[in-house]
Design goal:
This protein has 422 residues and is of the alpha/beta class. The chain has helices at residues 72-81, 100-113, 136-141, 157-169, 181-184, 193-197, 206-221, 234-243, 255-259, 281-293, 308-311, 328-337, 344-358; strands at 2-11, 14-23, 26-31, 41-44, 49-52, 54-59, 84-89, 117-120, 146-147, 173-176, 225-228, 249-253, 298-299, 374-384, 403-413, 416-420. The relative contact order is 0.16. Keywords: Hydrolase, Metal-binding, Pyrimidine biosynthesis. Pfam families: Amidohydro_1 (PF01979).
Length: 422
């Protein structure tokens, strides 16, 4: 049994302070002054802040197929360090989970290796890049709940129309990667002084915006659970704001687009290269405003591990992607909460309660008889993001060396301490 003494946390937007007693997998009692018995594992949380386990609905686990970048075990460790106890894994694996057999094999790997809860997403089309639809019904019967061709926009209108219908009929959710190939072509970056100086081909926000505009027309005819992954631009955000209450549209933003704009690029480094790209200061400000106003529903990292020789090189030659799952809460607390851009309560809402509701994950709140997936943070403890202490297999983030606050001290999963900061 675990007794957490003097834990501060939010319930219904109110800051509470209580003791929390855990027995087995569940929280069995919440009260003030619970007596500590000799056989309890005691955690003094007087200087800590308690949250439910965080949820990240956009993660590249890389297994099977790309284990040299990351694997289920290493991403689990990174997640636990970052206070994340539930993730959704993208389908750009090898083999792609575009059929029941590969989906079930990946789920078996997850069962054997994961220390957290991983929901494996399935592809919408065969091999992600084709126009041949997967068997949605069979995948649903095998346990699939979420669909995504992340990394590839669906180019064909009829294909997307049919996908939307299958997602609706089978009561699934689709997380879309908005990208128009005729606009992107071989572009890598937002147009900027940086792209001009380094002679890097660029592409505009219209790649994202145009595909959303097409999809909204389709959703007006036949609406489904439609979630926009890694939103980047002000104009796309305005379109979502216009239709999110009329259609079943939700959206996420990742920390990289919230905290960076193309003017922040310090040198010709592949660490800044992600897809969709980091955009303008105007777009960054719009995303922060959308976060505060509630147009943006949740934050997800798009954790995309790559090895050093794929990222610590010049921009043109690098792979797209950044890591982030193990420090997302800390960096957002440091940059947004401490600077009073959003509240701490809002951050927890964006990283747990909202994704939990949108994806219908049925994860726990902090209440009696709930599963004990909990995280204790020292919000005042400072640390530096150090390549040598990152537990992910990959180190590809431009935030290396940043001074951060909000250190994870304990991650509890189903009543067991799975991460402790020693």
């Amino acid at each position: 049994m675990i007794l957490i003494k003097n834990a501060s946390y939010f319930i219904d937007n109110k800051l509470c302070k209580n003791d929390i007693l855990i027995n087995g997998k569940k929280i069995i009692k919440i009260a003030k002054g619970i007596e500590s018995l000799d056989y309890y594992t005691l955690i003094d949380a007087s200087n800590f802040f308690l949250t439910p386990g965080l949820i990240d609905v956009h993660v590249h686990t890389r297994e099977p197929g790309y284990e040299y970048k990351e694997d289920i075990s290493s991403v689990s460790k990174a997640a636990l360090k970052g206070g994340v106890t539930t993730i959704c894994s993208m389908a750009n694996l090898s083999p792609v989970p575009d059929n029941v057999e590969s989906f079930l094999k990946i789920n078996q790997l997850i069962k054997e290796k994961s220390k957290i809860k991983i929901h494996q997403m399935c592809a919408a089309t065969k091999e992600l890049t084709s126009d041949e639809l997967v068997d949605f019904k069979a995948l649903k019967e095998a346990g699939a709940r979420f669909i995504s061709n992340d990394g590839y926009g669906i180019q064909n209108k009829i294909t997307m129309k049919n996908i939307i219908n299958e997602v609706k009929v089978n009561d699934l959710l689709i997380s879309v990667h908005l990208e128009t190939n005729s606009i992107k072509k071989d572009g890598m970056i937002q147009k900027s002084k940086f792209s001009k100086i380094n002679n890097i081909k660029h592409f505009s926000y219209k790649s994202e915006y145009k595909q959303l505009k097409r999809d909204i027309k389709l959703l007006k005819e036949n609406s489904c659970k439609y979630h926009v992954g890694h939103l980047t631009s002000a104009k796309t955000l305005r379109l979502i704001k216009k239709y999110k209450n009329k259609l079943n549209i939700t959206c996420e933003v990742n920390p990289n687009h919230l905290l960076l704009n193309v003017n922040n690029f310090q040198d010709n480094s592949g660490l800044y290269k992600i897809n969709p790209p980091i955009r303008t200061l105007k777009d960054q400000k719009a995303l922060l405003k959308g976060l505060k106003e509630g147009t943006i529903d949740c934050i997800a990292t798009d954790h995309a591990p790559h090895q050093n020789d794929e990222k610590f090189i010049e921009f043109k030659k690098a792979n797209f992607g950044m890591i982030g799952i193990e420090f997302s809460f800390s960096i957002l607390y440091t940059k947004l909460v401490k600077n009073k851009i959003i509240t701490l309560n809002k951050l927890v809402e964006l990283m747990h309660y909202n994704p939990n509701k949108i994806f219908n994950l049925k994860e726990n709140s902090i209440a009696e008889n709930q599963i004990a997936n909990l995280v204790l943070w020292n919000l005042n403890e400072k640390y530096y993001l150090d390549e040598n202490t990152i537990v992910s297999k990959s180190k590809n983030t431009p935030f290396l060396g940043e001074e951060l606050f909000g250190k994870n001290k304990y991650t509890i999963v189903e009543g067991n301490i799975k991460w402790k900061d020693d």
